[in-house]
Design goal:
Elements: E1 7-12, H1 18-26, H2 30-37, E2 41-46, H3 47-64, H4 83-98, H5 104-107, E3 108-114, H6 122-126, H7 132-135, E4 138-144, H8 147-157, H9 173-180, H10 185-189, E5 195-198, E6 201-209, H11 218-238
Parallel strand pairs: 1-3, 1-4, 2-3, 4-6
Antiparallel strand pairs: 5-6
């Protein structure tokens, strides 16, 4: 059996700590990363850059080309609810393209990062748009924080000079509340402490508690991540 995860779905509210986890993993040497976290070489797929490109395109259309906005309204909300699912379909497509490389899954872990609130369908809806190639091999790490903690960290990290940055982007309070105050994780997770039962599949999962915050302390973060990933890898083995 492989000693590394093939696919990690890294989920949680905005500013829960997902990007900080990825940043920590990137800064960890591969031998240590493989030994402690069962992640050697890895690549990430994040829907935020895709979403941000839509915002930029709409700004160009409106302000430079004097044309109608294509993706979002003037307040930055999607024009159609199905656009949230389009982003998930794009994630599946990006993974499909990675598989073109011979032996990709044999040597790499793909970390897929996204957030979904109940207002735009939640995880019940978004998982229906992940491909079978992802769902069949995926393990889920959910970073658990309350809405209040998500709001606090979202305010803290926002840099108005770098709104497109993975680590420094943020949402206005009113938009965060509308889109992410309510999440369906608990009902999606279900009663099984090890597996999410979805569409006939058993998807291994673990929950990373990040409240009080540990993603701001590299030592505590490493210890907490190691515990979660070791547990998750054991669940996957038994599957």
């Amino acid at each position: 059996m492989k000693e590394h995860f093939e696919i990690i779905l890294l989920l949680g509210r905005p500013a829960s700590g997902k990007s900080e986890v990825i940043d920590y993993l990137k800064k960890t040497l591969i031998p240590e990363r493989l030994n402690r976290f069962h992640i050697g070489g890895f690549e990430e797929i994040d829907d935020f850059p895709m979403l941000w490109a839509w915002f930029e395109e709409d700004a160009i259309l409106e302000k430079i080309m004097h044309k109608p906005r294509f993706h979002t309204d003037p307040d930055g909300y999607f024009l159609q609810a199905y656009q949230w699912n389009l982003l998930i379909e794009r994630i599946s497509l990006e993974y499909e393209k990675k598989l073109r490389e011979a032996g990709y899954a044999e040597k790499m872990t793909t970390v897929v990062e996204f957030s979904r609130g109940s207002e735009h369908g939640g995880y019940h809806t978004s998982f229906r748009h992940l491909s079978d190639k992802i769902l069949g091999k995926a393990c889920v790490l959910y970073i658990d924080v309350s809405y209040e903690e998500s709001r606090r960290k979202n305010r803290r990290r926002f840099n108005p000079n770098r709104p497109d940055s993975i680590l420094e982007h943020g949402l206005p309070d009113n938009k965060l509340e509308r889109l992410y105050k309510e999440v369906d994780w608990e009902s999606f997770q279900g009663p099984d402490p090890e597996f999410i039962h979805f569409s006939g599949l058993k998807i291994p999962y673990a929950v990373f508690k990040n409240e009080p915050e540990v993603t701001d302390d590299p030592v505590k973060l490493g210890e907490a991540l190691e515990g979660c990933f070791v547990k998750l890898f054991d669940i996957q083995r038994r599957k």
